[in-house]
């Protein structure tokens, strides 16, 4: 299942290379795409571990969603890989802070949605 993580990193590197070669509006669009994929990975992080606990009968090492698996490895890799691409290609510090803040917000929202099932979120 680590192949999915490797493919995610390859996709992030390709997107980063494409954005590095572009300029102006095209580069801004690559930053938006990378940031969106990073935020999606951040928001799915807790939900993926919730699914792993639910299907794996309380453990990440057992069951069909045992470690490493697509559900548990791709969201953090996407969060980090695409987030780094977006941060490197961002044109200003203000945009970088927005990307970072939205990534943290996506994680917090994922914690609120998925964490309640395993006792991490409040009610």
Automatic annotation (TrEMBL):
<protein>
    <submittedName>
        <fullName>Uncharacterized protein</fullName>
    </submittedName>
</protein>
<keyword id="KW-1133">Transmembrane helix</keyword>
<keyword id="KW-0812">Transmembrane</keyword>
<feature type="transmembrane region" description="Helical">
    <location>
        <begin position="99"/>
        <end position="120"/>
    </location>
</feature>
<keyword id="KW-0472">Membrane</keyword>
<feature type="transmembrane region" description="Helical">
    <location>
        <begin position="70"/>
        <end position="93"/>
    </location>
</feature>
<feature type="transmembrane region" description="Helical">
    <location>
        <begin position="38"/>
        <end position="58"/>
    </location>
</feature>
């Amino acid at each position: 299942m680590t192949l999915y993580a490797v493919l995610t990193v390859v996709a992030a590197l390709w997107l980063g290379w494409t954005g590095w070669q572009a300029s102006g509006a095209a580069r801004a669009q690559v930053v938006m795409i990378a940031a969106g994929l990073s935020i999606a990975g951040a928001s799915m992080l807790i939900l993926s571990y919730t699914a792993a606990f639910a299907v794996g009968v309380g453990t990440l090492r057992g069951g069909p969603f045992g470690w490493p698996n697509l559900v548990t490895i791709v969201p953090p890799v996407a969060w980090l890989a695409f987030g780094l691409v977006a941060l490197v290609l961002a044109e200003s510090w203000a945009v970088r802070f927005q990307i970072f803040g939205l990534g943290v917000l996506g994680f917090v929202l994922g914690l609120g949605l998925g964490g309640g099932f395993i006792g991490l979120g409040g009610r």
